[in-house]
Amino acid sequence: MRGLERPSRSADDSRMNNPASGNAALAARDLRHVWHPCTQMHDHESVPMVPIVRGEGAWLIDADGRRYLDGISSWWTNLFGHANPRIAAALAGQARTLEHVIFAGFTHEPAIELAEELVRITPPGLDRVFYADNGSAAIEVALKMSFHYWLNQGHGEKTRFIALTGSYHGETLGALSVSDVALYRKTYAPLLLTPFLAPSPDAYEGEPGESSEQTAKRRLGELRSLLERHAHETCAVIVEPLVQCAGGMRMYHPGYLTGLRALCDEFAVHFIADEIAVGFGRTGTLFACEQASATPDFMCLSKGLTGGFLPLSAVLTSERIYQAFYAEYSAGKAFLHSHSYTGNPLACRVALETLAIFRDEPVLERNRQLAASLARRLEPLRAHQHVADVRQTGMIAAIELVADKASRRPYPAAERRGLRVYLHGLQHGVLLRPLGNVVYFMPPYVVDASDIDLLVDTAIAGIERAVAD
Questions:
Q1: Which band of pLDDT confidence, cut at 50, 70 and 90, is reported for residue 16?
Q2: Is it the case that residue 126 has pLDDT exceeding 60?
Q3: Binding region for pyridoxal 5'-phosphate
Q4: For residue 48, with 0-12 CB atoms within 10 Å meaning exposed, 13-18 middle and 19 or more buried, which class applies?
Q5: Is 184 strand, coil or helix?
Q6: Which residues are annotated as a binding site for substrate?
Q7: CATH number of the domain at 2-84+363-466, please?
Q8: Which fold has domain 89-360?
Q9: Where in the sequence is N6-(pyridoxal phosphate)lysine found (predicted)?
């Protein structure tokens, strides 16, 4: 399996023997100037900054030569391993030919070929591709495109969006506006739009004795009530299909997506599928929407699109929506959105090679086997006195830590129990980055059974450390 081969672990780097470029020196230089994302920088007075100098398959190597198994695919982006030789070769070849060109009035074969391939592999009816730079930008494009479609159709009263409780769609202002993360909304509320919130179909929040399918059906009824009141002013409903990732790896039944598609058709609102984190095989199918046989009006893709190599996103939509913008210049209907690096040739070529690996190799079949191994290893945790739930969708699995199992009473956020798991993982060569008190796994597809054993064993030991007092 050429795209999934595991590079030699014997490679060395001379800087590892040089104290001036070791972990301590690089961390000190970093902390003098760099401001990191999603971080209270004061934490790094006690939490180590880890300088990474090389990646090999599922592993990261720091400046002192220590190795870390990447259990979260470096923020869910990496699919086929760090420094994957096949993808790296494609990138190098493109760099020698064309690194970038303005994408207004100009085009190039990597972008054309990638659009053709995305249309081929995504659910039927998604025939147009708009490129952007990252996941949040893709959400911005979809929100604006939905609103602008209705405006062009003479429905300027449609200015609102419906999102799910517990949702997260990115950190630009439009993306935050359709997210339901209390910390962000509290901080940036004066700058944000206010969405209508529909109750999440999250199976963990289901009624006692209720199946995940029954929970989804009940929540669809509540969404219907919301649409009955507000469809006339609503552009679109936006969801993360099957897994609400940053909201705590909340998982739900695919029947919700089937019902959502029907409701959007009935009430004349768009369905935006945020597959940025769950696309490209994470949930067991290439795209999560496939499990509901549902085609959204907009599908947002990023993260795994380039196998973790370069930033790129794409928004796919229908010919019908495209045609609502197609008019003489004087009509003023053109879509207004651009990025300097739109359709970057390097990123497009890397994405094409990533998709070629899916085409050439039995990736999804292998992932099903890995997911089954992960499920077997996690099963004993269901009986743990501080675990309220163990849930899994394909190659995404999560463990819900609680102070009290019977009542599901959570640990106070200020206790930062998840941070203890993270620190334990670093000490034992595993990168885990819990979401609050939810320990999760989303590894690259190049892990094997022994890697899964290491991930789970380290997480279990970290959990014991986290709940010890």
A1: low
A2: yes
A3: 135-136, 274, 339-340
A4: middle
A5: helix
A6: 75, 168, 303, 338, 433
A7: 3.90.1150.10
A8: Aspartate Aminotransferase; domain 2 (3.40.640)
A9: 303
